[in-house]
Amino acid sequence: MPFLSTEFVELAVVSLILLTLILHFKTLIFRELNLFLVSSGLLLAILGLLLHFLYITPFQPVLINLLGEWLAAYLGTLLYLPCAILLLWGMHSWFAGVIQLNREINKRKRAESDLAASNERIAQVLNSSSQGILLLDRDFNVQLTNKRLLELLNLPEHLGEPGTSYRDLLQNMIAEGEYGARLEETETVYQQWRDLLNSQHFLHFQRTRPNGVILDIEARWIPHMGLLATYTDITKQAKAELELMKSEEKFRDFTDTASDWMWEVSPDYRMTYISELGQKLTGRTFDEILGTRLEKLLDFFEGRDDWEKLVEASRREESFSDFQTVYIHPDNSRRHYSLSGKPIYNTGGEFIGYRGIGRDITARKQVEEQLQQSQKMEAIGRLTGGIAHDFNNLLAVLLGNTELLRETLNKEESKSRTLLDNLERATLRGAELTQQLLSYSRKQQLRPTTVDLAEGLSDIVSLIGRSLGEDIKIEVTFPDGLWLAHTDPGQLQNAILNLANNARDAMPNGGKLEISVQNHLQQGIPRKECCDFPAGDYVAVSVKDTGCGIAPEIVEKIFEPFFTTKEVGKGTGLGLSMVFGFAKQSGGHVCIESSVGEGTEVILFLPRAIETKRLSA
């Protein structure tokens, strides 16, 4: 009986343990079909063993009575077949699942390994980036940083760990003097940044740190991630831009203060640059000139043949220097320009246009023309003086012989005496002409003295009034404080009479003749082009009419001897040349200003007298 008791106890313990396990893992068993099948097979196996065990115990009669003799004897054995089926089916599926699970686990491990390797590569890329990178979540906690950010902001490594509040980063930067705030103001600064960043989808600004590093910062919100901010050190770039700005400013200063102006054209000969001085001198703005082709610009210049030669040379990429041309200003004035240029190339040796300078030589051209005119007048003066002296000697011989012949004639020879009178008058007229020629050539004998023009010209005005006629009104102006002049009063009278007679001829239908005298201080800067003479104190005598005026091309020749606009036999062309010679020989100057239809003004500049003794003109 002890044997039976031991077997029974063992069976009971095994059954109890199995039942406990089934009850404990019932949820898992019923959820996992394969595990359920295996458990069912094991349960059938235990049941078959139990029936087989009960059949060989004292419970056999009870079991036979309950199941029948045959079923009681073979039921346990019969249960082994479904047990084996369930076990084989369940184990097959279960082990397949285990294998699949193992595969999934291995795949997950490989994916985690690949992800870790990818994250490592990303971390290496981020840490090797020249930009500082900061990623914050919606609560402004750190998600991601790189080493460059810690370096740029001088942050300790623990502040770059995920989960760190942005407040801690600000506190560290404020402690180093960032934002100009105190440490206790960290919360205020933090809230200000939160409000600013929450209100802006994109933010871009530059900031200079206390250590002098200039940061270019961009911050933008990324959906489902947070706020991504990049920090770029632009200190070198900013300094280079500052140096470039200073260099450009220096270049502008040079170009704006230089007497030459700068220009540049592209390879297809379009204007790409012209300095401010060039815009001022040409009378056209940069927008008007920018992009204009050379063919269009040539419409503003004279001498197209010369330009075509220059363009042909430029197509051969040749340098040129001192190319002189005439430019038509928008105000219709003519300006003389000198241009120089050289081809420019890029680093690859490719031709990229021309660059050069331009110079306004209008004043120089005018001076050259004046010098040529002065030299011409001087040469004519020398020639005229020499001829006048020789001709005067011949006239003296003629006049002397005329006197001798007159003494040899009898009073009855009236016809011969008349011929001698005619000869004498012609000889004296020739002598007057030679005197005028000598006056022009500045070889006549002047007797300059101190003259008070305010007193002396009154007699001349009365004389002029009788010769001009009633149709011409004379107006005389003498200001107070008039300086004394140093000149020959007789020659001055002749000069004013000559000018008055010319004015009368210019006003055949009447008009007004204005004679004015005023002090003139010549400071070396001429009022007009024709008024360029040595600096000093002068007394200016102006004779101005309201006549027909003189054309510009005639004004240039007006003082030349024998040049006249009058009909043949009505003028010798020596009147104004005598005035010119008188003014120059007196140490002064004569200037003429005239426009067609607007009258003529001739101004005599006579040197101021140093003596105190007065003499009327």
What is the structure about, briefly put?
The protein is built from 19 helices and 17 strands. It is α+β, with helices and mostly antiparallel strands and 617 residues long.
Features:
single chain; 617 residues; alpha+beta; five-stranded antiparallel beta sheet; 19 helices; 17 strands; 53% helix; 20% strand; rod-shaped
How does this model look, in words?
It is built from 19 helices and 17 strands. It has helices spanning 2-24, 26-31, 33-55, 60-67, 69-128, 147-153, 166-175, 186-199, 235-257, 276-282, 286-289, 294-297, 304-315, 362-408, 414-440, 453-468, 489-506, 552-555, 575-585; strands at residues 132-136, 142-145, 202-208, 214-222, 226-233, 261-265, 271-274, 320-328, 334-345, 351-360, 449-451, 472-477, 485-487, 511-522, 536-545, 589-595, 599-607. The strands form four sheets. Strands 2-1-5-4-3 form a five-stranded antiparallel sheet.
Low-confidence stretches: 568-573, 612-617
- Neighbour order of strands in the largest sheet: 2-1-5-4-3
| Sheet of most strands | 5 strands, antiparallel
Termini distance? 182 Å
- Summarize the amount of helix as a percent range: 40-55%
The radius of gyration computed from the alpha-carbon positions, rounded to a whole number of angstroms, is 60 Å
